[in-house]
Amino acid sequence: MRGHVILSHGTGSGPQATKVSVLAETAEALGYSTERPDYRDCDELGEQASVAPRVERLLERIHAAPQPPILVGSSMGAFVSGLASLRAPCRALFLLALPIGIPGVEPQFDMARDVPSMLIHGFADDLCPADAALAFADRVGMPALLVADGHRLSDHVAVIEQQFRLFLERLSA
Questions:
Q1: Please, which residues bridge with residue 70 across strands?
Q2: What pLDDT is attached to residue 107?
Q3: What is the CATH number of the domain that holds 13?
Q4: Is the dihedral of CA 142, 146, 129, 127 positive or negative?
Q5: pLDDT at 59 over 90
Q6: Per-residue pLDDT tens over the stretch 11-36
Q7: Buried b / exposed e across 146-164, counting CB within 10 Å, b at 16+?
Q8: Which of 29, 99, 162, 168 makes a 20 to 30 Å CA pair with 143?
């Protein structure tokens, strides 16, 4: 086994969502084990109230992992992956449609700086402004790919899969 990948879905989505499913299949094809925590019960609490229980659930999964995992997250899943990376060891971060802040939630987004990372974001994202996500990526030196898409990145699933495959291959090299 090359490693373990934990994929976190966004709000209003689930562990069987298209992006996390495609990325899980990609990781598994490259010899990684994967898991996709289900946060839908947390999301029923509302956006603000879901953050803390999502982070705690992800931390439980990180601590149960056979080795420091690669964290993959989309939207709220990206937000909690970054926050969890500050509290538990991870091998890398692969983030999609990243919100830098969630109204009424402290802290703002942050992440471990000592691990490989990548951001993919849509410039037409109406929920998570691209400018804020790219400014964060620039500030921390995280590679970022800006695509012509909205928040769901649904027109670029193949591009995301290709970038994730390259990301994992670089980690294994």
A1: 5, 92
A2: 87
A3: 3.40.50.1820
A4: negative
A5: yes
A6: 999 999 999 999 999 999 999 999 99
A7: ebebbbbbeebbeebeebb
A8: 29
- Read off the pTM: 0.97
**What is the domain count for the chain?**
1
Phi-psi region of 46 (alpha: psi -120 to 50; beta: other; left: phi over 0): left
Sign of CA dihedral 61, 63, 69, 71: positive
Q: What is the mean pLDDT of residues 151-162?
A: 97
Residue 1 lies in a domain: no
Domain that holds residue 76: 6-172
Closest CA to 124 of 155, 95, 93: 155
For the chain, how big is the Rg over CA atoms in Å?
A: 14
Residue 100 CA to residue 97 CA, distance in Å, equals 10
CA-closest candidate to residue 43, choices 81, 10, 78:
10
